């Protein structure tokens, strides 16, 4: 289980994202509870890869 | 007999023979909505006058000798993220509570041109992610098999309405399983077509690279008929693929002789608990039912082999991270300026995107390419793939937590990541509630997926069992 996020860290993250918790305090409190889930998602996708391993996005020239 | 007891295909054949009137069929569905939707909450807006007018026009065309095909005079519903010109489209959100679009979704244009009659706009989780949410002005839809239970989401209203016979078919959308989850919990056929097969234009996006539009119906044959009208290139949808559209109904066969089926067992037998903990343990009944369904496929002539892929968590978490990042980018302005308008679940789930980095997103998309390549390679020796859907029955609607959607195993998310066609088919019951598995295909092989699903469905005959709420109204 991830460590609870500190008040200082949480305030920093909100400010960096341009979010104002005073506009919806209950919503932001629940969002804080969910922050721990991001760690698992990040851990799952951040792994060693060859530098040449490209993302799934593709660009296809339109016809014509 | 009550015509709402017919499948979409049966009603279509009766209309074609002149044995059933589109007006009578539409009136019968509207009567059921009036009688039953007060407790089911599957519709946000019922279009009584418009539906009857469209049904009368459909009937007049038939009398004049003109038929538009299998959907002529068939009453359907649209998830309320499909834009309808001049008709309120809320996306299930206060942000769009009074929004009236000036254009139609391309899919609705195609269905209307094929003769379908629109009964109304159906309940959706907020922006196709935030539900079931009791903090919104729209009450969440209930499971037609047991009103105390969850119909899944986000195409919750569409699935509930089809399951309760409040429409013949409906349109859902699917970014991580929002067609196939509700299909599983409500005992329906639900098809997420290949990415690019069906236009997304005019449908509120959740995640551009993962969103798919598709039908929910009571049988696989019905799905085939709806897909026939929906499939095809749309030059104005950047993801649309210019690929020929086959005759889906013609592909359906009662036997599956020689069909090579890959079975991904490790997703539910091992990976669910290993990746997501014991709360994701499949029920014993589910495991037995899944195995029995595989045996049914063998009895139809299919050859089954086990497939080994990367762990489920690799697929599910890449899908979730991409979805959160893309959805947050889409809604960032409202998160900053008027966050109080969002419902509880939408805010908590998509708000996480504020804390992802560009590198997180790019890593997830790099992982996506690896997994797509892996799955394509695994499919080389098989025609279709079977994987679990929800591995237990629908929970009570009041037991669905805000973050369950990210904490628990998702068996549907992998096929959004790969963009593969995937069909949910009912395989049994547990505690009186439906269970399902998925049939997954190679890109643009919806015909193969529908063929396998139809043959299984006809052999298992579970579609004959309907929830009590689907019974004819008294006196009909």
Q: How would you describe this protein?
A:
The complex is a heterodimer of chains A (64) and B (476). Chain A is mainly alpha-helical. Chain A has two helices and no strands. The N and C termini of chain A lie far apart (54 Å). Chain B is of the alpha/beta class and 476 residues long. Chain B has helices spanning 8-16, 22-40, 48-63, 106-113, 156-163, 180-186, 220-230, 266-276, 284-299, 312-337, 344-350, 358-378, 404-407, 413-417, 446-460; strands at residues 43-46, 75-79, 117-122, 169-174, 189-192, 212-217, 260-263, 303-306, 384-388, 422-430, 433-441. The model of chain B has no long low-confidence stretch (mean pLDDT 98). The interface between A and B is medium-sized, with 31 and 39 residues.
What are the key terms here?
heterodimer; A: 64 residues; mainly alpha; 2 helices; B: 476 residues; alpha/beta; Amidase signature (AS) enzymes; eleven-stranded mixed β-sheet; 11 strands; 38% helix; globular
Mean pLDDT level of chain B: 98
Count every beta strand of chain B, where a strand is a DSSP E run of 2 or more residues. Answer: 11
Q: What is the strand tally of chain A?
A: 0
- The strand line-up of the biggest sheet of chain B is 1-3-2-4-6-5-10-11-9-7-8
Q: Note poorly predicted spans of chain B.
A: none
Per CATH, the architecture of chain B is Alpha-Beta Complex
The helix/strand order of chain B is HHEHEHEHEHEEHEHHEHHHEHHEEH
Oligomer: heterodimer
- Report the total helices of chain B: 15
Distance between the termini of chain B: 7 Å
As for the CATH topology of chain B, it is: Amidase signature (AS) enzymes
Low-confidence stretches of chain A: none
Instruction: Profile the largest sheet of chain B.
Output: 11 strands, mixed
The CATH superfamily of chain B is known as: Amidase signature (AS) domain
> What shape does the CA trace of chain A take?
extended
Instruction: Please give the most extensive interface between any two protein chains, plus how many residues each contributes.
Output: A-B, 31 and 39 residues
């Amino acid at each position: 289980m991830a460590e609870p996020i500190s008040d200082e860290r949480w305030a920093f993250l909100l400010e960096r994202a341009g979010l104002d918790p005073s506009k919806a305090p209950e919503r932001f409190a629940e969002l804080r509870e969910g922050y721990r889930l991001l760690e698992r998602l990040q851990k799952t996708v951040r792994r060693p890869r060859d530098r040449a391993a490209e993302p799934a996005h593709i660009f296809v020239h339109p016809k014509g | 007999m009550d015509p709402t007891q017919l499948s979409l295909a049966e009603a279509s054949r009766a209309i074609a023979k002149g044995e059933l009137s589109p007006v009578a069929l539409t009136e019968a569905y509207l009567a059921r909505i009036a009688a039953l939707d007060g407790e089911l909450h599957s519709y946000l807006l019922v279009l009584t006058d418009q539906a009857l007018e469209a049904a009368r026009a459909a009937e007049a065309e038939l009398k004049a000798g003109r038929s538009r095909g299998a959907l002529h005079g068939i009453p359907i519903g649209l998830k309320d993220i499909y834009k309808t010109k001049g008709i309120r489209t809320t996306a299930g959100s206060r942000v769009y509570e009074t929004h009236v679009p000036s254009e139609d979704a391309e899919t609705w244009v195609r269905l209307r041109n094929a003769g379908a009659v629109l009964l109304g706009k159906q309940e959706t989780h907020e922006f196709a992610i935030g539900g079931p949410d009791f903090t919104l002005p729209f009450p969440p839809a209930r499971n037609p098999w047991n009103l105390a239970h969850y119909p899944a989401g986000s195409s919750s209203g569409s699935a509930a309405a089809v399951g309760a016979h409040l429409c013949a078919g409906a349109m859902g959308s699917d970014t991580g399983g929002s067609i196939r989850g509700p299909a599983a919990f409500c005992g329906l056929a639900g098809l997420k077509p290949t990415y690019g097969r069906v236009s997304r234009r005019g449908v509120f996006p959740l995640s551009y690279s993962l969103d798919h539009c598709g039908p929910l119906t009571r049988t696989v044959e019905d799905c085939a008929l709806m897909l026939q009208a929906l499939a095809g290139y749309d030059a104005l949808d950047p993801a649309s693929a210019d690929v020929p559209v086959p005759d889906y109904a013609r592909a359906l066969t009662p036997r599956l002789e020689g069909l090579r089926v890959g079975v991904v067992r490790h997703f539910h037998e091992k990976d669910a608990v290993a990746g997501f903990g014991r709360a994701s343990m499949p029920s014993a009944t589910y495991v037995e039912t899944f195995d029995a369904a595989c045996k049914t496929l063998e009895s139809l002539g299919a050859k089954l082999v086990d497939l080994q892929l990367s762990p489920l968590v690799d697929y599910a978490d890449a899908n979730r991270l991409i979805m959160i990042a893309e959805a947050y980018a889409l809604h960032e302005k409202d998160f900053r300026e008027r966050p109080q308008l969002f419902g509880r679940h939408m805010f908590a789930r998509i708000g996480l995107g504020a804390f992802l980095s560009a590198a997180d997103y790019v890593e997830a998309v790099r992982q996506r390419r690896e997994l797509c390549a892996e799955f394509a390679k695994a499919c080389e020796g098989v025609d279709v793939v079977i994987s679990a859907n929800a591995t237990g029955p629908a929970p009570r609607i009041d037991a669905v937590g805000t973050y369950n959607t990210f904490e628990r195993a998702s068996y549907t998310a992998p096929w959004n990541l790969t963009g593969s066609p995937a069909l949910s088919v009912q395989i049994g019951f547990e505690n009186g509630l439906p269970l399902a598995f998925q049939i997954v295909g190679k890109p643009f092989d919806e015909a193969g997926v529908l063929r396998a699903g139809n043959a299984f469905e006809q052999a298992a005959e579970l579609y004959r069992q309907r929830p009590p709420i689907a019974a004819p109204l008294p006196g009909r």
